[in-house]
Amino acid sequence: MSDPSAAGVGEKAAVQVSIDGSLVSARPGELIIEVAERAGVYIPRFCYHPHMEPVGMCRMCLVEVSGPRGFSLQPACFTRVAEGQEILTRSAPARKAQEGVLEFLLLNHPLDCPVCDKGGECPLQDQALSHGPGESRFLEEKRHWAKPIEIGPLVYLDRERCIQCARCTRFAEEVAGEAQIDFLGRGDHIEVAPFTSVPFGSYFSGNTVQICPVGALTSPAYRFKARPWDLEQVETTCTTCALGCRMVAQSSAGALVRNLGVDCVPVNQSWLCDKGRYGFEAVASPARLTTPLVRHEGELVPASWHDAIGVLADEARRARSSARGSAIGVIGGARLSNEDAYAWSKLARAVLGTDSLDAQLGDGLPAELVLGLPRATIDEACSARAVLLLAGDLREELPVLYLRLRAAARSRVALVECSPVPTSLSPLAEVLLRHRPGEVAQLVAALAPGAQAQSEAAGVGAAEIEAARALLAGAPGGEEAGEGRHSLHGAGVVVVLGRQSTAESAAAVAESAALLHEALPDARFLPALCRGNVLGALDMGLSPGVLPGRVALGEGREWYSRAWGAELPAARGLDTEGMLRAAAAGELEMLLLLGADPLQDFPDRRLAREALEGVGFLVSVGTHADASCELADLVLPVAGDAERAGTTTNVEGRVSRLAQKVVPPGRAWPAWVVAAELARRLGSDLGLDGVEGITEEISRLAPAYRGLDPVLLGSPAARDGVVVPLPPGHVPSRGPAVPRRIDPVATPGIASVEEQGAPMRAGAAEPPAGEHLDGASPAPRRFEEPAVDRPPVLSAPPPLGLPAPPRLDAYSQRLVVRRRLYEGGTLVSKSPSLAPLEPRAELSAHPAELARLGLGDGDRARVRSARGELVVPVAADEHLERGVVVLSAGSGGSASELIDASAAVNDVRLETL
Amino acid sequence: MGHLGEEQLERARRLIALYPERRSALIPLCHLAQAQHGWLTPEAIEDIAGLLGITPAEVQGTASFYDMLHTEPVGRHVVAVCTNIACMLAGAYELLEHAEAHLGVHVGQTTEDGEFTLEESECLAGCDIAPCAQVNHRFFGPLDEAGFDALVAELRAGTLSEVVPPHGVLCRVERAVGLLAHRQEGPGDGAAEEGGAGGEGLGGGPGGGGARP
Ligand code: SF4
Ligand code: SF4
Ligand code: FES
Ligand code: FES
User: Could you tell me if residue B92 is inside a domain?
Assistant: First the structure.
């Protein structure tokens, strides 16, 4: 990617070229189009995309370039600079060529701009005006095709409009790694086409719609919904998964209509996954909660906020005064912004007096571990010497992280995969460690540099273990010696740490991480937790025993007790599983669900059901009516995605801003307001009076967020977010926000909207945090910093020595649960575009295991565990080990019927019907 | 079933082994599959994709680029009439119109009995026998209307089966690659399998025309 400042050009190696008469220095090997761009000279283009390999396909970028035999026309996107080159972009021959190419591209173009979604933001329109001949000599009949055709569930193709730039096909092949579309035919019969029986169903298909430089590719979600000049937009962050892709949310007439990826180089590099791109449809869903509901004579009936909070306050008072240790529990919070999460964390501990709060639903990892391990950034992972994958299938869980790691693995990073079953990254891994499910800790123990050589560990052979150890240690003096590529302490190693399967307890992964941290103290960890803003929620203390800013309860209790003016509970509270157990046993007075639906999301459904039925008073604070709402005694509607400002924290600890684009429906409140109001009705004051004030308070109190105030977050240095904790002594530049430069052809649809009257807010929309901040900080807040030492940030717990789980008996299969991107959840089921894509649940097993039972591919079978049973179709997969079955999540059968959350591993038996 | 047979799979593996990059074997594999079914069935495309580690969409895309690869079913005889300049001057358009009338199909279509697919082609490098046509990659020309009718009659009657290979078989693949890749037998066997490819077919053309290898 071109460096925005010429100063970034390496001094000694720079070459000098002249572009339209001015001297420019460039890195050797840079493309002319990039050098020109940096020098402020725009060369027209269609096929060139800054995040894909150049192909020189469309010839729109022809310029005159001097060479040994004089000037010749060369494609600027494909030609690399050389010392002394003279480049003419607007000479008569260059103009003639550009006009000729445009006239040619328009020969068969239908010019149906008035009914084309791209009209008004179309690079072909724009460049026809700026670089075209203005008139065509073509009088003949143009080609005609049926229009549009559905090439995939989320992509329509209008072949007449296609200019054959190959951006879409290259994206599919090069970036997404699934060439489900390619050119079909030749000459003027050429068309983009999927294979007859395989629709273009990539999780990343929406990116082709975004980068198509004409209106050939459109999405059902946006088709005919709006015109660019009707749009308004804000730059914000996707909180669908925990990766935090930067994007622009666009609305028309007060409703969200489109999300577009923004070129945030350290995170998503302009790409989005389709779930993040189209999930906005759920925001306007009729299933949104719009008014508080109170259970009255068995029915949920609408109530005013005043009455609803009154009921809640009464119940809370009653619960608080009950004799039991954990009277009140709070589950959820991963869908909240950091500010909302902080407010609830403060409310729970300072007012409700409970430490039982957990943003993870038994599908994550221990918070102390995640927050205490040395954290890697995505960029560090993508430039690491070796990446150890110890997570589920990243394409299903953190889709754009999969894209980034895929690109990294293809260029230079060695992947070592520890997984009991194949994943999307397996084909790119240098070493595959297929261990027995649940025994990852035993495998990891054998990988440590000092470990004794073993003939096998957890089912993995000595050769693989040796290969993995060599990669983790680096080859001493290998080809890239001099880069210090050998380290016994794990420098240059990044571990992607997630939950391999919810059918195993998190303890094995936690133990593995602790072992790795002990053996390779210089290795860094990238947590692959996937639930929305879960990392932000953990950072804000929505986890038992953890206070805001990554502080242990014991260490930070005094600090926060003073800062919040209330005695915090001393004892560590319960996690989600503990709360559900207490509730099921009738020992929990009140349970608050913060946008969480344990019936859907907790791995053990029976426990969840018993808990929700057994709890004294159930409150659901959320955006949509879900299954748990139906059991609730009180339902409170809150603002969701694109309806609130604030910040979010992604897997690397990058804090970036959320912007509000639309107003919440009905009477929904921002979640922090609910917390503040409840506190007020309980006679306390949380001291929170606005989102920016909360951000400010977090930056003063929460140790890991120290210094991260609204001024910094609104500055240009924070445009791509800021990774916390800030290094000690770090003084970030805090100038006023300047607009992000958006390449109109790389990401069509953003710059054009801006030009047509909707200036983009870089972060918080109302009022933009960056704007009143020309150097002056907001007035200092009224609270004093506590007069005790700031508590230290957590460090990772040591390994505990975990026994291997019991061996399988001869009739059982060990269960692995594979999450899937479109598995049912509120966002998917409430988005009309995504809902039909929910896959069916399916159980895969080794063909021999199926044959043993006389089962064939596609037959239905009964899966029985100690906990429950399920009837699902089975599929043969010869890549699986015998004795392992994989339940892929989806409709028609939830793994949570089978799983006992307290078991280390879950075994099942397969039976014919 | 349109999948590749055991023998074809075996030959495909040997073809792939000839190239440093697997996907370089794409075109030879397409010919191999076409030789089996006469056209590239969707199943065969999937098989090829699987063998080469690319996607069916890529195989289909490449195959659709080339006129000699068919992604739709064709008749037993694919008749390609050249209408490029030398043939055009020698009456190719008239010949083509006659062919359409005689076979009762338009260019690009297949006769109902599945015997003939008619195609219009650019220069076939048979300008010396203009106007010329190819039947399953065998040359016939110069062709007048009567000659064309006679050719059709002989093809129907099966009397040219020695000269005209079954549709879909491109002898050059057999000879240049296939032989090296899969034949251990002596040259005699090879010539026999190749039918008219080596020059033995010369002069066997129907009235008014001469077949050329
Ligand atoms: S559909 Fe769009 S992106 Fe794809 S080749 Fe055509 S113009 Fe380019
Ligand atoms: S990868 Fe995650 S953050 Fe990025 S667009 Fe998809 S859901 Fe949103
Ligand atoms: S050829 Fe350069 S932009 Fe297309
Ligand atoms: S013009 Fe017909 S074969 Fe050359």
Answer: yes
| Whole-angstrom distance, CA of residue B99 vs CA of residue B141 | 14
pLDDT score recorded for residue A133: 92
Give contacts of B 25-54 with A, CB under 8 A.
Answer: 42, 45-46, 54
- Binned at pLDDT 50, 70 and 90, residue B185 comes out as very low
State in Å: Cα A72 to ligand 3 middle. 16
Ligand 3 atom nearest to A61, measured from its CA = 2
A156 Cα: distance to centroid of ligand 2 (angstroms): 22
What is the extent of the structural domain holding B29?
Answer: 6-65
- Write out pLDDT tens, residues A494-533: 999 999 998 999 999 999 999 999 999 999 999 999 999 9
The mean pLDDT of A183-190, rounded to a whole number, is 92
Contact B56 A184 (CB under 8 A): no
Pairing of strands A654-658, A646-649: antiparallel
- Ordered structural domains, chain A, with CATH: 6-106 (3.10.20.740), 140-284 (2.20.25.90), 300-352+535-682+691-713 (3.40.50.740), 368-530 (3.40.228.10), 813-912 (2.40.40.20)
Q: How many beta-carbon contacts under 8 Å exist across A and B?
A: 43
Look-up: residue for tokens 């399988």? A808
pLDDT interval class at A276 (50, 70, 90) = very high
ipTM: 0.87
Task: Choose between B52 and B38: higher pLDDT.
Answer: B52
- Starting from the CA of residue B132, give the closest ligand: 4
What integer is the mean pLDDT of A284-302?
95
Total-model pTM: 0.91
Using the predicted structure, report yes or no on whether residue A618 has a pLDDT greater than 90: yes
| Chain B residues touching residue A198 (CB < 8 angstroms) | 55-57
Of B46, B54, B61, the CB nearest to A184: B61
According to the model, what pLDDT value does residue A753 have? 76
What's the number of domains chain B is made of?
2
Give the per-residue SS3 of chain B. Answer: CCCCCHHHHHHHHHHHHCCCCHHHHHHHHHHHHHHHHCCCCHHHHHHHHHHHCCCHHHHHHHHHHCCCCCCCCCCCEEEEEECCHHHHHCCHHHHHHHHHHHHCCCCCCECCCCCEEEEEECCCCCHHHCCCEEECCEEEECCCHHHHHHHHHHHHHCCCCCCCCCCCCCHHHHHHHHHHHHCCCCHHHHHHHHHHHHCCCCCCCCCCCEEEC
Nearest CA among A344, A297, A308 for reference residue A634 = A308
Task: Give domain status of residue B195, yes or no.
Answer: no
The confidence band for A784, taking pLDDT boundaries of 50, 70 and 90, is low
Query: Cβ A179–B54 below 8 Å, yes or no?
Result: yes
Question: Does the beta carbon of B91 lie under 8 angstroms from any beta carbon of chain A?
Answer: no
- Specify the residue with its C-alpha closest to ligand 3, atom 3: A45
Q: What is the pLDDT of residue A567?
A: 93
**Pair B54, B119 in one domain:** no
Question: Under an 8 A CB cutoff, do B65 and A181 touch?
Answer: no
Chain B contact probe: residue of A164, A180, A190, A195 with most B CBs at under 10 A: A195
Q: What ligand 4 atom has the least distance to the C-alpha of B141?
A: 3
Residues B123 and B36 in one domain: no
- Ligand 1 test: best mutation among A164, A181, A205, most atoms within 8 Å of CB? A164
Any idea which of A58-62, A373-377, A778-782, A876-880 has the lowest mean pLDDT? A778-782
pLDDT, residue A762, reads: 47
- Tell me which ligand sits closest to the C-alpha of residue B130: 4
Q: How far apart are the first and last CA of chain B?
A: 32
